[in-house]
Amino acid sequence: MQRACAAALLSRGRSIIHHPGHSDDDKAALDIVRRLGAEVIFQDEDLIITSSGVNPVTTDVNCGESGLSIRMFTPIIALADKPITIYGEGSLLNRPMDFFDEVLPQLGVEVESNKGRLPIRIKGPLLPKNIEIDGSLSSQFLTGLLMAYSSKTSPRTPLQRSGAFKDSDESNVSIKVRNLTSKPYIDLTLDVLKRFGLDVPENRNYENFVFSFDTHDSRPDSYRDTTHEYTVEGDWSGGAFLLVAGAIAGPITIRGLDMNSTQADKTVLEALSRANASFAIEAKGIKIRPSQMKPFEIDATDCPDLFPPLVTLASYCNGETKVVGVDRLTHKESNRAVSLQQEFGKMGVKIETHDDIMIIYGGGGLTGAKVHSHHDHRIAMACAVAALKAKGETLIEEADAVKKSYPDFFDDLIKIGADVSLSSKIKFHE
Q1: b/e sequence 158-195, b meaning 16+ C-beta within 10 Å
Q2: What does the buried/exposed string (b/e) look like for 236-262 if buried means 16 or more CB atoms within 10 Å of the residue's CB?
Q3: Which architecture, in CATH terms, is 236-429?
Q4: Is omega for the bond preceding 251 within 30 degrees of 0, making it cis?
Q5: Residue 222 CB partners (closer than 8 Å, separation 6+)
Q6: pTM of the model
Q7: What are the boundaries of each domain within the chain?
Q8: Residues whose CB falls within 8 Å of the CB of residue 59, separated by 6 or more in sequence, listed in order
Q9: CB–CB of 33/51 below 8 Å?
Q10: Are the C-beta atoms of residues 246 and 418 closer than 8 Å to each other?
Q11: Which among 55, 230, 248, 400 is placed 20 to 30 Å from 102, CA to CA?
């Protein structure tokens, strides 16, 4: 959803987005594109974004608590030639943004940050050049650069045709990447660029992304002003919690998840399979029901958002489950390795970390407890799903953190039969 908003802003013309999301992160993205000059309206169940490119109407934007928004939209905002201050909220204020201090000045952008933290003040315009970046912290920084480069190198862009790239190679510019993590999310970004008619770089083994352009493109301006239609996929990150809920306390059927998706969190199916969970993929959806499950091993380096549902799943598997990728958990809405250890420990599940490996000792039964979300949407959802078969009542403090990505989460649990008392503190009963 957030990528679609960014692409609609950059693609010029009219974009119709079907099945738009309404999480706090989605709302932050919509507010950003409005502030960057796009017209945003809802018509029936669709979202319509009309844009003439990046033309800021304010001097500031707020990314809320969305890590993707700050990392993706900052290079896009840098396309403008006026100073813009970028703010954030909650845990986003503590996330490192040194990447922009180091990279954007290489592209002609003035940057002032709060010692590598928000707020950040930038002034463009960003001019694509051959650069090399480190992709180990997050692929989302690369997503932002790919979006910005795609807009600026496109022969459909007036700046391109006016010769704005005299400092670039005659035929291309490239982004070289070291240590790229979460490669499936880059596949998703490239797919969105293609669907919105933006330039898609040549992907050379996720190590070099090469944009080719032609400053003598003769296609008419009307070529740019087309209508793009895009349907937002069901979210595998949120769907993973429902699938685990089904494996623990089903049976349930989950509809709307694309089996051909490039989303990294589709890996949850591999984890369920390794855990010997009982599920079937049918035309109407994924049917899943409880079964005797066994411990499993899986590498979640490229899908770190899966750690919370995987820990929940492992808690109900009889033995030691090992999940690789702990190093990716530090700079989330909370330090998720610590949060998972603390909150699942309260419910009777022992969790250890050894270097980059998390070991979950499952199968001993869970006990309802008073737990805290750490203001982290995925920790709140993990505790909720874990509570479905825990003995006694579970109280989740600050459970409304789920609004960040999945505002309907507790309503959906109620639909599948969970005993939930909704308040600022969510109660679950066995």
Answers
A1: ebbbeebbeebeeeebbbebeebbbbbbbbbbbebbeb
A2: bbbbbbbbbbbbbbbebbbeebeeebb
A3: Alpha-beta prism (3.65)
A4: yes
A5: none
A6: 0.90
A7: 2-231, 236-429
A8: 82, 83, 84, 85
A9: yes
A10: no
A11: 55
Start-to-end CA distance of the chain, whole Å, equals 35
In angstroms, the CA 293 to CA 363 distance is: 9
CATH pick for 2-231 out of 3.90.1150.10, 2.60.40.10, 3.65.10.10, 3.40.30.10: 3.65.10.10
Rounded CA-CA distance 153/226 in Å is 18
Q: In what order do the strands lie in the sheet with 278-282?
A: 252-254, 285-289, 278-282
Give the residue from 403, 309, 423 showing the smallest Cα distance to 21: 403
| Residues 6+ away with beta carbon under 8 Å from 408 | none
Q: Which amino acid belongs to residue 400?
A: D
Answer whether 272's CB lies under 8 Å from 236's CB. Answer: no
Q: Which of 41, 94, 40 is nearest to 70 (CA)?
A: 94
For each successive 10 residues of the chain (430 residues), what is the average pLDDT? 98 95 97 98 96 96 96 98 96 93 97 95 96 94 97 53 45 93 95 95 97 57 71 97 97 95 96 98 96 97 96 98 94 90 98 96 97 97 97 96 96 91 66
